[in-house]
Each structure stands twice: as C-alpha cells, then as structure tokens.
Automatic annotation (TrEMBL):
Residues 67-81 form the Glucose-methanol-choline oxidoreductase N-terminal domain. It comes from Rhodovulum sulfidophilum. Its cofactor is FAD. Keywords: FAD, Flavoprotein. InterPro entries: FAD/NAD-bd_sf, GMC_OxRdtase, GMC_OxRdtase_N, GMC_OxRtase_C. It holds the Pfam family GMC_oxred_N. This is Choline dehydrogenase. Belongs to the GMC oxidoreductase family. GO terms for molecular function: flavin adenine dinucleotide binding; oxidoreductase activity, acting on CH-OH group of donors.
Length: 345
C-alpha cells in the first residue's frame, strides 16, 4: 500500500495518530517472554528490554497480537497449549489447549520465470550504475518509478482449471527475476510469474523448541503435503505457461527458464513446484476461532478457559482467506478494539 509515493502501513495509519494519548505507552527494543497469572486469570506479561527483565500488569485484560508464529509460542511458554508439547519441554500445564500451534496455513508461491526480449525490465534498469542512479533520481524528484512501486505490478485472480467454481489461484507478476530472495537480479530481461493456491488444504504446525523464550519456534508448514495441493500446483504451472503463450505476449518471445519447458508430466511438475516455491508470508490459523475441541478462541476473541486473555492477530483465522492477509488482520484488530471497549463499559 502506498500514499504519495511512500510505503503506507498500519503503524502510520493507526498508531502514529494515537501516540499522544495518555493511555498509550509504546516500548521499543522489548520482547515479551510470557504471561503472568493471578490464580487462573492472566494479569499481565513479562518482557526483556535491552537485556533487563520487566513485568507489567494489565488493568483490565491482556491481548496477544504477536502473529501466527509468535502468539502460539507465548501461549506455550506460559503453559497454555498441548500437554504433550509442554511436557516435552518441562513446562507445567496451566491449561490444556490442543489446538495451540496446530492448523498452520500459508500461501505458497510458485515462482515461474520467463526470459523476454523487446522490452526492458528491472533487471536491465538496475544492471548499471547509471540505471540505478536514474531510478534513485526519479524517486527523489517525482516520488515515482521503481522505488515507488510494489514488486508485483500485476495481480490476477482466476481458476487453475475448469473443475473449480470460483477463483482458486492468485498471480503476482513482477518485472524482474532472480535466483532467490536476497540474490542479485539477473542480467537479462525477464518476468517472474508467481502463482499461489488461495485455498490450500495442507496443514502444518508451529511449536516451541525449548522452554527458553530466546529460542525461535519450530515452524513446520507442510507445504504440498495434501495431494489436492499438489494437483493445484501442477495446474498452476500449466496455467502460467498458457498465460505467457497468449497472442498479446508473442512480440516479447517469452522463453521459460523456471521450472523449464522440458518438465511436462504431472510427476515432474509436482516435484518442481516444491523446488521453485516460497512462502508469501501469510501464516495464519495457529490459534483459531471456534467452539470445537481444537479451537483456541471464541467468537469474542477470548481464549477458551483462560480468563483475562484474548488474541487479535492472524492466528485466530479459522482458515486462510482467499487473498492477502493484511486487510483481514486490520479488520480483526478493529473488531478486537470494539470488543475491548464493550467489555470495559
């Protein structure tokens, strides 16, 4: 999201206008390490700031918003989660919630790449010092050009095949190519035609790997573990090939370089999908909403069986949305704010 050629985000839209409020304190360089309790009720958190441990008490309730990776970690470190996981790391069980850390879902992006001719891409523009200087100058003078745009310049919602009633895949087309994120752009003009399955059926998990808050959790996305997802992956690569073979693109002579035109069978394409795919950074559903035994929060975002604690982030989504996750998370935050005000009234 942009505004005036600058990146626009939730911090600028929601936090900055509220910074002067007397009831708001923002602490940077701080990491929450666990929840604190008064009996069975959560009454605050512990955190470390610049190496110094602290504790803060909640006046009314505690709201976790650490995301689909951080929230289950904090719950488990605090003794809330599957008994087997907690016991494995010597953490006393405060409340057995088997769904914590389970049901992890994410959008997997299959990165097909096509070399082209007759047009310039970011590969060309950034290949020389003069080109990079031109990009910087255009942004400085006009707030336009490559530095003012999102990486993906084209998005398409469509069906991977006729067996789907509604759009089940999303394209992110980028005027650039590279071997992997963080690597230099290629020296030849090319497009990255990425496709993701909007409604994956594979499920993963995210759990603590130790009782030390400094240790990152173990993330097991289990991408393409469900045969249905592998089938959509094969359809997606073939769909991308048909797209790039369209009459309108013939003047640019697209030549597939990834995964490669020699791969044609379902087995070959299914295997290739795993090799050329990457996360699109949409993890959700590790503390999902519901009323069944695997649910973690109820319809008011309150954690089942744990008074004084609620969650407001992507972890509460029952299933992954058919699109990007930022807007739905913003909606969850807005709803959480309304619920908090209602409970405090």
């Amino acid at each position: 999201t942009q505004r005036g050629g600058l990146r626009w985000n939730a911090r600028k839209a929601f936090l900055d206008p509220a910074r002067r409020r007397p009831n708001l304190t923002v602490l940077t360089h701080a990491e929450v390490t666990g929840l604190t309790f008064d009996g069975s009720r959560v009454d605050g958190v512990t955190f470390v700031r610049r190496g110094v441990p602290h504790r803060v008490r909640a006046g009314a309730e505690t709201v976790l918003a650490a995301g689909a990776i951080g929230t289950p970690k904090l719950l488990e470190l605090s003794g809330i989660g599957p008994e087997a996981v907690l016991g494995r790391h010597g953490i006393a069980v405060r409340h057995h919630l088997p769904g914590v850390g389970e049901n992890l879902q994410d959008h997997l992006q299959i990165r097909t790449v096509f070399r082209i001719s007759g047009a310039r891409t970011l590969n060309d523009l950034s290949a020389t010092l003069a080109g990079r200087a031109g990009i910087a100058l255009e942004y400085a003078l006009r707030r336009s050009g490559p530095m003012a745009m999102a990486p993906s310049q084209l998005g398409i919602f469509t069906r991977s095949s006729g067996r789907h009633e509604t759009a089940n895949i999303e394209y992110h087309v980028q005027p650039l190519s590279l071997d992997a994120f963080g690597e230099p752009l290629h020296r030849h003009p090319a497009l990255t035609v990425s496709v993701c399955n909007l409604r994956p059926t594979s499920r993963g998990a995210c759990h603590i790997r130790s009782s030390d808050p400094a240790d990152p959790p173990e993330i097991r996305p289990n991408y393409l573990s469900d045969p249905a997802d592998r089938e959509v992956a094969v359809e997606s690569i073939r769909h991308a090939r048909r797209l790039m073979a369209a009459e309108a693109l013939r003047p640019f002579a697209p030549m597939e370089t990834l995964p490669g035109p020699d791969l044609v069978s379902e087995a070959e394409l299914s295997h290739a999908a795993g090799d050329i795919s990457t996360t699109i950074f949409h993890p959700v559903s590790t503390a999902r909403m519901g009323a069944d035994p695997m649910a973690v929060v109820n319809a008011e975002l309150a954690v089942h069986g744990v008074p004084g604690l609620s969650i407001a982030d992507a972890s509460v989504m029952p299933t992954i949305p058919s699109g990007n996750t930022h807007a739905p998370v913003t909606m969850i935050a807005e709803k959480a704010a309304a619920l908090i005000l209602a409970r405090a009234a």
